[in-house]
């Protein structure tokens, strides 16, 4: 049994490490390991499965296995309105493109890419659409910049499974 036992769990993206042992490791090697995790977590090509939710205090939301287009997302979400299509575009940007933040123009471009769903009047209504979504699905992170709220992201991941 270590003299000064500690237990830590570090999770960055899909990379998770649990350490149980002597406190001296935290003082000597932990920062190097955490730095390596950050470097690995920043890479786009990590394909490891996410850690088990039973090992952390919060449930881990796993990402859908396949990359979907905005049009496919709109189909799966049964998008009927501009708000629905905007959510499909935001889901694409946040979940499949891996973006933590996106602009109004990026949302509009993704909406336009969903042929058969996009209508020209959606562009002029985008301010109203985004205002509606900011009530419970989006955060405004700066002027014309948005991020998807974690609870909304988890719901979308579940729906798109």
Structure overview:
The chain is of the alpha+beta class and 161 residues long. The protein has two domains: 5-55; 70-160, Orthogonal Bundle (Arc Repressor Mutant, subunit A). The protein has helices at residues 24-28, 30-42, 70-76, 82-96, 104-113, 121-124, 126-134, 150-160; strands at 5-12, 15-22, 102-103, 138-142, 145-148. The strands form two sheets. Strands 3-5-4 form a three-stranded antiparallel beta sheet. A hairpin with a 2-residue loop joins strand 4 (138-142) and strand 5 (145-148). The chain is elongated and about 65 Å long. The termini are far apart.
Count of individual helical segments: 8
CATH topology of the largest domain: Arc Repressor Mutant, subunit A
- The residue-averaged pLDDT reads 80
Strand content: 15-25%
Summarize the main sheet.
Answer: 3 strands, antiparallel
Low-confidence stretches: 44-62
Count of discrete domains: 2
Overall radius of gyration: 20 Å
Helix- and strand-based class?
alpha+beta
Bin the helical content.
40-55%
- Rounded to the nearest angstrom, the distance between the terminal CA atoms is 43 Å
Secondary-structure element sequence? EEHHHHEHHHEEH
CATH architecture of the largest domain: Orthogonal Bundle
């Amino acid at each position: 049994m270590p003299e000064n036992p500690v237990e830590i769990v570090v999770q960055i993206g899909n990379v998770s490490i649990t350490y149980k042992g002597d406190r001296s490791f935290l003082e000597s090697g932990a920062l190097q390991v955490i730095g390596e995790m950050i470097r690995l977590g920043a890479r786009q090509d990590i394909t490891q499965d996410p850690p088990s939710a039973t090992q952390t205090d919060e449930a881990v939301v796993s990402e859908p296995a396949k990359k979907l287009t905005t049009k496919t997302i709109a189909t799966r979400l049964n998008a009927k309105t501009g708000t629905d299509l905007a959510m499909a575009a935001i889901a694409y940007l946040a979940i499949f493109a891996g973006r933590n933040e996106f602009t109004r123009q990026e949302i509009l471009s993704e909406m336009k890419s969903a042929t058969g769903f996009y209508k020209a009047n959606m562009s002029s209504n985008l301010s109203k659409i985004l205002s509606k979504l900011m009530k419970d699905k989006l955060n405004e992170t700066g002027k014309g910049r948005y991020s998807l709220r974690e609870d909304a992201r988890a719901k979308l991941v579940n729906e798109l499974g």
